[in-house]
Design a protein that fits this description.
The protein has 14 helices and 13 strands. With about 350 residues, the chain is α/β, with parallel strands linked by helices. Strands 3-2-1-4-5-6-11 form a seven-stranded parallel beta sheet, sandwiched between helices. Strands 7-10 form a two-stranded parallel ribbon. Strand 5, helix 6 and strand 6 form a beta-alpha-beta unit. It is globular, with a radius of gyration of 19 Å.
Length: about 350
């Protein structure tokens, strides 16, 4: 019976993972977050132990529970491109500095650390598929603060790997644009989810124009949340210690679509669902520049496809949800509460 500590338990990944753990295992979840709105009834589950708090303030609670639990998942991070450009120091302070003591406590108490890296660490790598063992990590110049997130995450990966060389049991996982119901809202920083789907859904239910940055030709490999959680559950279970010292891309290469294609697919689905059809018909697709949309410190990646061979072979995992089904599930989740969807993130 594992005890799993999830910091950022109310986030997109955190609440989906908690739900799966409580529904399918006998494990206990110890979770901290500043809110619990996404957790809903899970808060009262007998194996959910929720604490309302902040990792930068409630440090004694965090250390005590690292000592108490078997597996540690620090999911607290700022991961929004607009914040990288506008408030780069805030990104570094939370994503690296605030997480470093958590990593060191996992070392101290000899726990299995399951840490969220990011597909962003590969930067502007030109490989057809990004491989965790072989692909180079390529970033732009210092005057493009967009890269501080990727750089902070990469540095943490290297620190964790270094501790691994000294005995830390760890697994790094890299989510590739995870999407699904329970997307982030304007009030909550995201942890590894894809804002662009949230943003487009908000525009559709409000009948607003969809902005395509630099023509929307940049591609992303989108991954449905259930597939991502399947992989995470196998990492936490860690049968035969298979995941120890490993780096796993968790993504779906088959769902590689341009942002323009994503917008068109979402509009096509929305027009067939009565609750969305009227506002969807009002939406126009317009083009803008990255400079106008994010600011001069932004750069983008044209392609981001994961190599998942080791994830599949070692974890016995395979992504199975098509792009069409993933998007339909998201629309269905908000179908009977479109008003809630109207308040989704309206800026990236």
């Amino acid at each position: 019976m594992k005890k799993v500590l999830i910091l950022g338990v109310n986030g997109f990944i955190g609440h989906h993972l908690s739900k799966r753990i409580l529904e399918t295992t006998d494990w206990h979840v110890y979770g901290m977050d500043m809110q619990n709105d996404r957790l809903g009834d899970l808060v009262s589950h007998p194996r959910m132990h929720f604490f309302e708090g902040d990792i930068t303030i409630n440090r004694e609670w965090v250390e005590y529970h690292i000592r108490k639990c078997d597996v540690i998942l620090p999911l607290v991070a700022i991961a929004t491109p607009a914040t990288y450009v506008q408030q780069p120091l805030r990104v570094f302070e939370l994503d690296f500095e605030a997480n470093l003591p958590i990593v060191r406590s996992a070392v101290k108490y000899k726990k299995h650390l399951v840490f969220p890296s990011t597909s962003e660490v590969y930067g502007m790598c030109e490989d057809a598929e990004f491989d965790p063992a072989h692909s180079n990590m390529v970033y732009g110049p210092i005057n493009k603060p967009r890269w501080i997130y990727a750089c902070s995450k990469q540095l943490m990966d290297r620190v964790i790997w270094g501790y691994g060389m000294e005995g830390l049991r760890f697994t790094l996982f890299r989510p590739f644009n995870w999407i699904g119901p329970g997307l982030d809202s304007i009030y909550t920083p995201k942890e590894g989810s894809s804002r662009v789907v949230t943003q487009f859904l908000g525009h559709i239910v409000r009948g607003e124009p969809i902005n395509l940055v630099d023509g929307g030709e940049q591609k992303r490999a989108f991954t449905y949340i259930d597939d991502g959680i399947d992989a995470l559950m196998r990492i936490i279970a860690n049968e035969g210690d298979i995941a120890n010292g490993k780096i796993y891309n968790i993504g779906n290469p088959a769902n590689n679509h341009s942002v323009r294609d994503l917008a068109n697919q979402m509009l096509a689905i929305a027009r067939k669902i009565p609750e969305y059809a009227k506002t969807a018909d009002q939406v126009k697709i317009v083009e803008t520049t990255s400079g106008a949309y994010y600011g001069v410190g932004y750069q983008d990646v044209q392609n981001r496809v994961p190599a998942i061979d080791n994830t599949m072979s070692e974890l016995g995992w395979k992504p199975s949800t098509t792009m069409g089904d993933a998007l339909k599930n998201i629309f269905e989740a908000y179908r009977h509460d479109v008003e809630k969807a109207r308040h989704l993130m309206d800026q990236e």
